[in-house]
Design a protein that fits this description.
alpha/beta, four-stranded antiparallel sheet, 28% strand
């Protein structure tokens, strides 16, 4: 081979190598995205093995360099400034990718089943007015396209969208109202990553290895029947709709799910607690995790709905969690309460007080604190009990003796404590409140938030 032909061949090979070795990124690194402020965020993607990658941002002119490894993966860490923008990010390898209209602010992952997925165009209270006023350019949505997989995936489908009446009406209503209040109070851009799927149980949103390594979780997952509308197998939506996001820096999570787990309600506290911890472990981040308690509804078998609500209350034992109450903004004939505004606002209030520490006062409903027994009476104390009052005169308390047979009881409010008793129980050992699938709490605090149902009888 002569020298000219040899040089030509080398040039062609280099050109071919370059043309097929483009730097690529996961879908959520794109134009219009929001990155977490004042943080070290990870940016990653793929390229040719040993390809040198240079990343520059318009908020910091320093170049960050790395190389793709032998598996074609690369990543860099970027330090983000305080909230602001719009900015650009330039990623240069054999090719060049420029991401534009990037905002720096607060990013939240919003997940769960249909009550999180529910959009303003699906018939929420005052939906038309909310849509009309949804011109919010500093709020951005990333709606993850529904998908499932047997194994963890590297990427997913979706795109960042600027909040307009058109984009907002097809995004999560709860997430929007949550984000809108954060934006108004913090005055920073808000990114809302919505990864939700109606009808899904918690088990499909957590790594399958976590379930299979735990006998209780493994047995409980087998009680879930197949659903024609969504996956129910362990890990399937986690693999496709959460695993690709791991590493994407978020401020925290809001979650609205639990209705489908009435099928294995007795173990929901264990399941849900494991889900929260598995997400935190995989992210390497002890982020706040706030969730909505499911609404009173006739779920079918007796007590399965209230058992999930009580399991959610008990899950508050997990650090850095908070619970939104919904029993006062629902109707018991609809599993999808149409008042998504108050749910979103209550999520925001918890985040503003507990995470951002910019709000004072009570932001959660009364929660069982302790119970003591003396003679025929039980003394029930609540947390978040300032200004405790009864909205109706009906008593929703019940007491039981050692036989665990519950009887309706009187509940007398004395300051911020209830004295509970029943003529049919001479030596009470257990107390429960609003214990029924459709029971609606009538105890409120000064923030006009309802108390959670509860039982002092420990789950079996």
């Amino acid at each position: 081979m002569n020298k000219i032909k040899y040089c030509t061949l080398i040039i062609l090979l280099l050109a071919a190598n370059t043309s097929f070795s483009n730097v690529t990124l996961p879908a959520f690194f794109s134009d219009h995205m929001v990155l977490q402020q004042n943080a070290e965020v990870k940016l990653w993607g793929w390229g040719n093995p040993m390809e040198e990658i240079t990343v520059t941002t318009s908020w910091d002119t320093a170049e960050v360099k790395t190389k793709a490894d032998r598996h074609a993966n690369w990543q860099v860490l970027l330090k983000t400034p305080k909230a602001g923008g719009p900015y650009t990010i330039t990623i240069k390898g054999y090719n060049q990718v420029i991401l534009t209209d990037i905002l720096i602010g607060e990013v939240w992952l919003c997940s769960g089943q249909s009550n999180m997925e529910w959009t303003p165009s699906s018939g929420i209270t005052n939906g038309e007015e909310a849509i009309k006023n949804a011109d919010q350019p500093e709020i951005r949505f990333f709606n993850v396209v529904k998908n499932s997989a047997e194994n963890p995936q590297l990427d997913l489908k979706g795109e960042w969208q600027v909040c307009t009446p058109n984009t907002m009406q097809y995004s999560s209503a709860v997430a929007y109202f949550f984000g809108k209040k954060l934006h108004e109070n913090l005055n920073v851009p808000i990114g809302l990553v919505n990864s939700s799927w109606g009808g899904t149980p918690a088990e499909t949103w957590m790594p399958q290895e976590v379930i299979h390594a735990d006998k209780t979780l493994d047995e409980a997952s087998k009680k879930l029947g197949a659903d024609v509308w969504c996956p129910s197998e362990p890990g399937r939506t986690y693999n496709a709709m959460i695993a690709p996001l791991i590493g994407f820096k978020v401020a925290g999570v809001i979650w609205y799910q639990g209705e489908t787990n009435t099928g294995n309600a007795d173990t929901y506290q264990h399941t849900f607690s494991a889900l929260i911890q598995s997400w935190r472990n995989n992210w390497g981040q002890e982020f706040p995790f706030y969730y909505a308690q499911i609404a009173p509804f006739e779920y079918g078998a007796p007590e399965i709905g209230v058992k999930v609500r009580d399991a959610q209350r008990r899950t508050l034992a997990v650090p850095h969690t908070g619970m939104v109450m919904t029993s006062d903004i629902c109707t018991t004939d609809d599993i999808h309460p149409r008042n998504k505004l108050d749910v979103g606002l209550r999520f925001a209030n918890i985040a503003l007080k507990n995470h951002y520490q910019t709000m004072q006062g009570i932001v959660e409903g009364p929660l069982l604190d302790s119970v003591s027994f003396k003679g025929k009476k039980a003394y029930v104390y609540f947390k978040n009990s300032e200004g405790l009052y009864l909205k109706t005169k009906d008593t929703l308390f019940e007491v039981a003796g050692a036989d665990k047979v519950f009887h309706k009881a009187k509940g007398a409010l004395k300051k911020n404590m209830f004295i509970v008793s029943s003529d049919k129980v001479s030596n009470p050992k257990y107390v429960r409140y609003a214990w029924g699938n459709t029971s609606i709490s009538n105890i409120f605090n000064q923030a006009h938030l309802p108390a959670s149902s509860f039982t002092t009888e420990k789950p079996e």
